[in-house]
Amino acid sequence: MGQFVVVIGTQWGDEGKGKVVDLLTERAAAVARFQGGHNAGHTLVIGGHKTILSLIPAGILREQVRCFIGNGVVLSLEALLTESGMLIDRGVPVFERLRVSPLCPLILPSHVLLDQARERARGADLFHRDRFASKLGEILDFHNFALQHYYRQPPVDFQKTLDTQLALAARIAPLVTDVTRALEELRAASANVLFEGAQGAMLDVDLGTYPYVTSSNTTAGYAATGTGLGPKAFDAVLGIVKAYTTRVGAGPFPTELFDEYGEHLSRVGHEFGSVTGRRRRCGWFDSAALKRSIVNSSVTGLCITKLDVLDGLDTIRIGVGYRINGEVSPDPPVSVEDYAGIEPVYEELPGWRESTVGVTTYEALPANARRYLERLQALVKVPIDMISTGPDREQTIVLRHPFAG
Ligand code: GDP
Q: Nearest Cα to 359, choosing from 284, 302, 301, 306?
């Protein structure tokens, strides 16, 4: 039986999804992106060679994998062509493997200038010159008004934008396909399909700590809407979590560390953005936050990444709840204001001195590493299916493969 598996980051992003998705695609016939845009960054390391992907699904490097960009992805034609050009230069036949939904909302140069993605044109419009010109005219009228009168910037030229977008559209025309139908056919053929999330579930525009969120829905439910399937289309949801926590930019982060432990996580984990180079905030694993994230996305199994980053610590803490106004709560606050003054409640476990880098079997892990993982699993009540012990594909312990069924 083929499996439709959603893979999402279940923290605030940068959980190492790229590596895991790439590894799982070994057994997948297709990989679909369903949300976000080219603002995400995935790092894949294969045979020591690093590739950063933003828009194109991580399965693109594999010969047998068909890649789809679903209707939930906001599409910049420039970004798509730049990224495919980079891959084509490295010998990856992007145009054979990738297909794009005509329903993707477009990111226009004027959206970039306004730093917002308010879309009133979709990919499908690009292939009807008059229809596109009319929608573009409407959008640019609105954008230019804001640019000129609000931001005091020069307007964006209509004719130039129209010509550029249509020229780019002609280049991506061979990629455009009915992604929903293609996925339905794969389901009928009992194929394994992976739905690749970007960013992290706790940055979801509706369920995250607004306003410190991203501009799209990052929880697993959007795998349905963002590809045109329904909620029953999926067999499993694999949640990727770091063995600790990081967060980029502002926003509540109860288990954040400002001491030498945080320093260790940042240094050993190379916690700097793959696209921005920005230093990530680091802290202990927050099982209370993860439990909520598991509910938000119907997570059925976990993949714990970067376990090796904890090597050498004398003690390790796990956040298990919060002290709010003197009371202990097992649940994170609902609104961002309620995070003021809250303190994490921790459990402390002994660390391990041994290296876990590259360990590929559970038994070979140090006893205290196993103890840590077993405690996490008991706290969140979802099985750990995979453990990542290094950036390379090979550096992984697979306990239960999502495509094994
Ligand atoms: P993504 O967007 O979720 O794929 O995450 P990023 O690519 O931004 O960050 C993950 C980083 O961690 C990348 O540099 C990976 O190569 C690296 N990485 C992934 N898994 C592991 C792991 O188990 N151990 C270590 N040390 N690094 C890892």
A: 306
Of the candidates 54, 59, 45, which has an alpha carbon nearest to the alpha carbon of residue 391?
Answer: 45
Residue at 224: amino acid letter? A
CA-closest residue to ligand 1 atom 10? 16
Query: How many Cβ atoms are within 10 Å of 393's Cβ, its own excluded?
Result: 16
- What would the two tokens of residue 386 be? 């995979």
Angle (deg, nearest 10), helices 287-297 and 367-380:
50
14 given a catalytic annotation: yes
Tokens of 156: 């964006």
Q: Alpha-carbon distance 101 to 114, whole Å?
A: 25
Tell me the whole-structure pTM to 2 decimals.
0.93
From residue 69, alpha-carbon distances to 94, 171, 195, 291, 370 in Å are: 12, 16, 10, 29, 38
- Whose CA is closest to 251, among 319, 293, 302, 205? 205
Ligand 1 contacts (CB < 6 A) are 9, 14-19, 41-43, 45, 274, 305-306, 308-309, 388-391
3-state DSSP assignment of residue 177: coil
Name the amino acid, one letter, at 132: F
Each residue's pLDDT tens digit, 44-99: 666 677 778 889 998 898 889 999 999 999 999 999 999 999 999 888 999 999 99
Helix-strand-coil split of the chain, %, nearest 5 = 35, 25, 40
Ligand 1, atom 26: closest residue by C-alpha: 390
